[in-house]
Amino acid sequence: MIMIMMRMVEIFLMFWALMGICALGVTNPQIRHIVEEDCSLTRYPSICVQTLNMAGLSSSSSGYTDIISVLLNKTISESKLPNSTHSTILTSQLGVQSSAQPSTGEYCETLMNLSEKRLQQSLTALNNKNKVEDIQTWLSAALTFQEACKDSAEEGQVVPNDVVRSDIAKKMSYLYELSSNALALTNRIQTTPFDTKSRGLSDQNYKDESSPDFPKWISRKDRKLLQATTTVNADVVVAQDGSGNYKTVSEAIEAAPSSGGRFVIHVKSGVYKEKIKTNKDGITLIGDGKDSSVIVWSDSVAGGITMPATATFTLALYIASDRSALYRCSIAGYQDTLYALALRQFYRECDISGTVDFIFGNAAAVFQNCELALRRPRGANVILAHGRSDPGQNTGFSVQNCRITASAEFESVKHSFKSYLGRPWKSYSRAVVMQSNIDEAISPKGWEEWPGSGSSVLSTLYFAEYANVGPGAATGQRVNWPGFHLIGVSDASKFTVANLIGGNSWLPSTKVVFNSGL
C-alpha cells in the first residue's frame, strides 16, 4: 500500500510538472511529445521534467536537440567547481593528506574537469548529425568520471567526515542523474527524423582494407609510427646515458606543446623509474621493444582512485583519454594493473599481466591479439572488472583473438587457485571474450560474482563468450546467470573494433579474421 501511494504521489507531481511546462509556453507538439514521452523513458524522469520546466522552453524551439541542450547546459552549470556547492567541500573540508597519494578532493577536481570537458564537447557537437556517436561516447565518459568521484568519497579511507562524504556523494549523484538523462535522450536521436544518416550496431559496411590492423580514426601517419620496426623520426629522444634530448620521459612530455599535432618521443633502452602523468593530446611514445624500454614505479594507493572492496593496489597504467592506441606494449602488475577508465581504447599485440581485476574501468576497449597472463595471486585471479553503471553507456571490454594464459611463475601452481575471466564491478558491467585461446587455469564456471552485489546484478550485467578455443574454453559448466550468454555471429559482431570502440559505428570498421567484423 505504501509503495502504491508513493507511486501515485510521483505520478501526481509529474503531472503538475508537465502542466508547468505547458504553462511556460511549450506549445510545439513535437517538443511536448518529447518532454512527456522521452522524459518518462529516462532513468530519472522527475529530474528531467523539472530541469525542462525551469528552463522555460518556448514554441520557437526546434525540437529534440533543444531538449538535450537544456539538459547539458544544466549539467555543465552544476559541474563548474568555482560556483558549485562541492567546491568548498573539496578544497577546504577534506583536510591535509599525505603527499604520497592524491586526496579525494584533488582526484574529484580532476575528474570534474574531465567531465566538464566532455560535456562541453557534447554541447558543441549537438547540432552536428554526424557527431551523435561521439556525443554518446563523451556523455558515457562524463557519467564515469562523476561516479568515480562519488566512489572515491564513499569507499576511500581519506574522507573521515561522514557529512563531507555524504555531501560529495549527493552532489555527484545529482550530476550523474542529469548526465544520464542527457545520454538517454541522445541515444534516441538515431530513431527520430532528426537523424536519418546514423549507422546501426549491425552495419558492417565500413572497411579500411588498406590497413586492416587499426581503426580508421588512427591516421595513416600514426599507423606508420605504430608499425615502424626501424628508427623513426622522433621530435625528441629520451636516453638515460645523456645521448638524447632528455634523460627522463616526464621531461620530454613536459616539453611537448599543450595542443597541436602529433609529438613523437623515442624512449631508448633502459629502465626509467618515474611516475608519468599528462593531460596533453597527441603524445606518442616509441620504445626499443617490450623488454627494452621499461617504465616502472611503485605507488600503492589506499584512497583517491578507489576500487570498492579493495584495500590497496598499484596501477601500472591509467587511461582516461579518447582514442588511445597501444601497440606491442607490455603492461605488468598484480592487482588492478590497467585502469581503462573511460572513452575509446584499442590494444593490439600487447602483453598484460596481473592477478585481481587486472583490467578494470568503464572504457569501450578492444584487446586484440593480446596476451593476458595470470600471475600468482594471494587468493583468486580475475582478469576483467568492467564498471558500466548506466544501461545507456556505450562501454564494454572486448577480448578478441587473444591468448589467456598462466605466467611462468603461476604455471606450476595454477590448479591450486581459482581464476576467472571477469566479474561485474558495476550493475551493467559488460565484457565479451571471443575467438580467444583460454588456458585451463580458468575455472570451469568462467565468471565470478562481485561480493555483496546482490542477485539483481546477475540479470543486468552482460557477459558473453563466442568461438573460443583451448582447454579452458569449454562452456558446459559456465555460470547460468541471466546476464551470461553464449552468443553467435550477430551479437559477437557488436563487440568488434567497428562497433564497440566505434560505438554504433562512430568509427569505420577494421578488418578482422571472419566476415561481418569477425
TrEMBL record:
GO terms for biological process: cell wall modification; pectin catabolic process. InterPro entries: Invertase/methylesterase_inhib, Pectin_lyas_fold, Pectin_lyase_fold/virulence, Pectinesterase_Asp_AS, Pectinesterase_cat, Pectinesterase_inhib_dom. It comes from the Eukaryota. Residues 1-23 form the signal peptide. Pathway: Glycan metabolism; pectin degradation; 2-dehydro-3-deoxy-D-gluconate from pectin: step 1/5. It catalyses: [(1->4)-alpha-D-galacturonosyl methyl ester](n) + n H2O = [(1->4)-alpha-D-galacturonosyl](n) + n methanol + n H(+). The active site is at D357. CDD domains: PMEI-like_3 (cd15798). This is Pectinesterase.
